[in-house]
Design a protein that fits this description.
Number of helices: 5
Strand content: 35-45%
Radius of gyration: 17 Å
Number of domains: 1
Number of strands: 7
Oligomer: single chain
Strand order of the largest sheet: 1-2-4-5-6
Largest sheet: 5 strands, antiparallel
Length: about 150
């Protein structure tokens, strides 16, 4: 009976990921870092079973491109500023509660809904810890043909 109840009382994978402290036990949680991330508009957390049945958490964080892009140069030839931008962060959660980086993608949308995707790396976690915008300047623009 206690085993069945403990499974029901275990925190959901997205809660474990939100409470993960990428900078160590003394650092802020991922949820806290995200809350003070420059230009954050909103965030959605979801979890699902990965290919091997392990819990996977996806964070979709929307950023205001004008705020997140402060300090970025003007878009280059053939590019224009995005109307909306997102950071998609995928994390795995082990049964023991360990959180691991899986992938990150930047998405920049036009006003009409077309988008360009930009593969990112674990550096987005370092940017969140440093309280700098996690999306690079290039991920805040869309190709002019979109």
């Amino acid at each position: 009976m206690s085993l069945a109840l403990s499974g029901c009382l275990a925190p959901r994978p997205e809660t474990v990921a939100r409470n993960w402290r990428p900078d160590g036990a003394g650092g802020k949680s991922l949820g806290q870092l995200l809350a003070v991330s420059p230009g954050l508009v909103g965030a959605t957390w979801e979890s699902f079973d990965g290919p091997g049945g392990e819990p996977v958490v996806r964070l979709a964080a929307e950023y205001n491109p004008a705020v997140a892009g402060r300090g970025c140069p003007a878009p280059g030839t053939g590019r224009r500023p995005a109307a909306r931008t997102f950071l998609l962060l995928t994390l795995s959660v082990s049964p023991g509660g360990a959180v691991d980086f899986v992938s990150a993608t930047g998405q920049a949308y036009t006003e009409g809904g077309a988008y360009a995707a930009f593969p990112l790396d674990i550096g987005v976690i370092a940017a969140l810890v440093a309280r700098t915008p996690p999306l690079p300047c290039a991920a805040l623009n869309v190709p002019g043909y979109l």
